[in-house]
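User: Can you predict the 3D structure for this chain?
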Amino acid sequence: MAEHPNAELWRKGQEAFSRGDLDAARDIFADDVVYHFPGTSPLAGDHKGLDAVRAFLLKLREMNVRIVEVHDVLATDEHVVALIRGTASHEGKQLSLNQANIYHIRDGKITEAWLVPTDQRAVDEFFS
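Assistant: Here is the predicted structure, written as structure tokens:
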């Protein structure tokens, strides 16, 4: 059975991020995209607009954030939920945890994202 087009969109974006191809963001995200990153770290908050989201993703790349396992990708005509295991390493610090990423899709592009880690305290400590 073929995968839902929105799941394919998410996988395309994830593959581009893994390669460091942030220029592909223009094909994946709407111009007015909003990324919600929870917590109290300097990266926490709402990153609004394509340029702000690209800058946020670049910071994640600089901290060696990687998805090491995709548990599942669930998709409908308006949403994608990606259940993942991620890692990160930066300046001697390590992070490894499960996370649910929730995306709103409109007209074939991601318009909003909510990143929901299973251990918010560990995320705040790592990104601080």
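The chain has a mean pLDDT of 95. The two ends are 43 Å apart (CA to CA).
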